[in-house]
Design a protein that fits this description.
Helix content is 40%, strand content 17%. The protein is an alpha/beta fold. The protein has a single domain, classed as NAD(P)-binding Rossmann-like Domain (Rossmann fold, 3-Layer(aba) Sandwich), CATH 3.40.50. Strand 1, helix 1 and strand 2 form a beta-alpha-beta unit. The radius of gyration is 17 Å and the shape is globular.
């Protein structure tokens, strides 16, 4: 199918199920003609992916908690499909007990884990992804406004998202030497596997939807459409930005 991404090869990291933001990205990019390469953490995730995504879609194992594994994954991707044109990084993690109570309840170990998987993984992905990316490529990560506001129970993840957004700005500066753009999408609250880990998540989603300008929350398809735009040459002027895709929730 012809579209704004026809001829482009895009890696999507973090598709968990049909409700995930990354799956919305997969649908949007596919509809715009991109050739998609998916990464998955383990065999269990591969089995799950194969239930709802065509087995002919290239899938490569990648555990971002291990930088050597990230390096190996991108070498495998290069061997299988050649140069790529973009990466969507939709990976984050915090221990469930850190998504309730108070921020001071978190241990140093759990803090470091959240930073490693949610923040450093983007740096690691950029490090090895840029080595096989064509000039004019694009890297996009997913964030949330808990990075700049104290969202109840978001705690350690909010701190990690703040670090992620700072990483976007620094990576955007550094990768400009290869004409590779780095941006973030700050998505509204959607009932995904990640969000359901936050205590009282249903209240969070309800408030988010109520504060949308039309009272209707954003969808994974709308987030995916913005990701498709950021992967395309149409967004060449956007560098180091955080783009809000939350139906105006952040305005209030």
């Amino acid at each position: 199918m012809s579209g704004i991404l026809t001829g482009k090869k895009i890696v999507i990291m973090g598709v968990a199920n049909k409700r995930s933001l990354a799956y919305g990205c997969f649908q949007a990019l596919e509809s715009q003609g991109a050739e998609i390469i998916l990464t998955y953490q383990n065999d269990r995730m591969l089995k799950s992916l194969n239930r709802f995504i065509d087995e002919n879609v290239t899938k490569v194992p990648c555990d971002v908690s291990d930088p050597e594994n990230v390096e190996s994954a991108f070498k495998t991707i290069h061997e299988q499909v050649g140069q790529i044109d973009g990466i969507i990084h939709a990976i984050a993690y915090a221990d469930p007990e850190d998504l309730k109570g108070e921020t001071t309840d978190a241990s140093l170990e759990s803090f470091n884990k959240a930073q490693s998987i949610s923040v450093y993984s983007l740096i690691s992905v950029a490090k090895y992804g840029r080595q096989i990316m064509n000039e004019g490529g694009s890297i996009v990560t997913l964030t949330y406004m808990g990075s700049e506001r104290a969202i109840p129970n978001y705690n350690i993840m909010g701190i990690a998202k703040a670090g992620l957004e700072a990483s976007v700005r620094y990576l955007a500066r550094d990768l400009a030497s290869q004409n590779i753009r780095v941006n973030a999408i700050s998505a509204g609250a959607v009932k995904t596997l990640a969000v359901t880990g936050v205590k009282d998540y249903s209240t969070l989603i309800k408030l988010s939807n109520e504060r949308a300008v039309n009272g209707v929350g954003v969808t994974i398809q709308e987030v995916g459409n913005t990701a498709a735009f950021l992967m395309s040459d149409l967004s060449s002027g956007l560098v180091g930005d955080t783009i809000y895709v939350d139906k105006g929730t952040h305005l209030i």
